[in-house]
Model the fold of this input.
Amino acid sequence: MHRIVVIAVPPVTAFDLSIPELIFTPVEAGGRPAYDIRVCTAEPGILRSGGAFDVSVHRGLEAVAEADTVMVTGGAGREDVPPAVLTALREAAAAGKRIASICTGAFVLAEAGLLEGRRATTYWAKSDVFRRRYPAVRLEPDVLFVEDGPVLTSAGLAAGIDLCLHMIRSDHGAAAANEVARLAVVAPVRPGGQAQFIETPLPAETGASLAETRAWALQRLDQQLTLTDLARHANNSVRTLTRRFRDETGLSPLQWLLHQRIIRARELLESTDLPMDVVAARSGLGSADSLRQHLVRRVGLTPTAYRRSFTRLSEHQEPVVR
Done:
């Protein structure tokens, strides 16, 4: 069982604090929970939140020593972080533990010196403050999440869900992560480089969303869809389709299609023993060589190595979602 210890640094954001338990808890491996989620804080008791209610945390920072992954969630302010929290984070990093933050939790990691020289992100509205305070961090303020070695950071609020899904995918594969996304009724695993701030995330209430076109495309990933095909289905010009796709998803149509094809290929590699050329064909990536190039570029593994990493040899080992 992989233990995740979440450090609550007041004032906490209750939504951020609830994300790890919501997303990690459903995953099982070998008939038992795959993750053990614990929350701790420097001074156990009632913690201030930025909202209408407070949060009670009973574990102290000694819990960090038993963690495999340590997470810090977001909250307002972020000045005067307790020194004991910074010490616990430095010791966790020195011990080789995976470190992650949600939203402005990145300020805490930076204050501990764990982001110096690394790529990182945080809530876009706080990016200017972050950049002034921590100039040695290579801030990427316009993405959903960043993974730089054993340190992961996410943008604000719901981007923490994307980060946790990405971590499940890294640990247990795309199929498990996408099943959790379906249970939580959130978008499937989104690429970390997707824009965190979309100027017009909701179309006018005219029934003009491209959701139907995206659903149509997902049923045809094994076909060589073109921009013209998508535009024809949406009854738009290619130019209008491209603009509306970016407005609604933060990606171009072809970027979105490629991401979905790679997700499909990863699921097929994890759940079947199909030959590589068949996996490539069913996911719309063309050839086994093309599959290999895209997978190496995206996850750093060849299809064979990916399958070996995530294929479970028995049902008792296969990650499932309750």
Notes: Residues 253-271 form the longest helix (19 residues). Confidence is low (pLDDT under 50) at residues 194-207, 312-317.
